[in-house]
Amino acid sequence: MEHSHSHDHGHSHSVQINKSNQNVFLIGIGLNLAFVVAELVAGLIYNSMALLTDAGHNLSDVASLVISMVAFWMAKKKSSAVYTYGYKKTTVLAALLNAVVLLVAIGILGYEAGTRLARPEPVQGDVIAWVAGLGIVVNSVSAFLFFRQKQELNSKAAYLHLLADALVSLGVVVAGIIISRTHLYWIDPAIGLAIMVVILISTWGLLRDSFKMTIDAVPVGIELEAIKKLIKKVPHVKHVHHVHVWPLSTTENALTAHVVIDEHLPFTRKLDVIAEIKHELEHNNIHHSTIEMAQEAH
């Protein structure tokens, strides 16, 4: 079977953090990292599982923000004769490592919280409330910074996540106040366990998605059959087969496909059809496409 190849490596629709967003991410990372240290120190000094687990929760936010920054930095590195797609895949490996480390931390903290729940120890509820109150301020300020940049996908995700964290901190404040008034010390490890459930749910999703990306599964949010139908809708496309879609990074996707185009069209018109296919794919979150023209079997 005779065939010809057309390759495209454009970036016009890829999701990347622009220069102005980079500063917002740096500020967000700095604020949240400082708060993680404050929660960790206070949790150890005042023996609070709620503060320690919330520190782990906020650390996951810092890791997520750092991963986005790594994606920005890696996207700027040029490809080479060995790494022909550059270093974009490292963002996927970083996400996978982040998920594994968080799961290990959850296991350790979960064991400690369970032990503490069985034998509650005295904690200072007012200290827990004040430190968690600081968390509300940090997360709210960070969320506001990202809200101003929310037209960008990574910033929007960070904004929503930090807003949710502010609500978690509010829950810890309420728990601290209740402990200081009632001396029901079991509330501290109970809140810690509740926060760990929140971390587990989000981390499991991160682990699942990053593992799928690592083995080049179809990216989340893309349906293979829908992509095939999209290509078939382009005028003069008769058939499409051997379609493969995989992630190049946490923000960019690639595709290869064989298409059969109306054989009565001139070659230059066939190239126009391929250009139209690529244009449609770019609008559907596929940034690199390789389309092979093939003759229909008779």
TrEMBL record:
InterPro entries attached to this UniProt entry: Cation_efflux (IPR002524), Cation_efflux_CTD (IPR027470), Cation_efflux_CTD_sf (IPR036837), Cation_efflux_TM (IPR058533), Cation_efflux_TMD_sf (IPR027469), CDF/SLC30A (IPR050681)
A cellular-component GO term for this protein: plasma membrane
GO MF terms held by the record: zinc ion transmembrane transporter activity
Subcellular location(s) of the protein: Membrane
Predominant location: membrane
Cation efflux protein cytoplasmic domain span: 221-293
Domain Cation efflux protein transmembrane: 26-212
Annotated transmembrane regions: 24-46, 58-75, 91-111, 127-147, 159-179, 185-207
Membrane-protein topology: Multi-pass membrane protein
Keyword annotations from UniProtKB, A to Z: Ion transport, Membrane, Transmembrane, Transmembrane helix, Transport, Zinc, Zinc transport
NCBIfam families: CDF
Protein family according to the UniProt entry: Belongs to the cation diffusion facilitator (CDF) transporter (TC 2.A.4) family. SLC30A subfamily.
UniProt protein name: Cobalt-zinc-cadmium efflux system protein
Organism encoding this protein: Flavisolibacter ginsengisoli DSM 18119
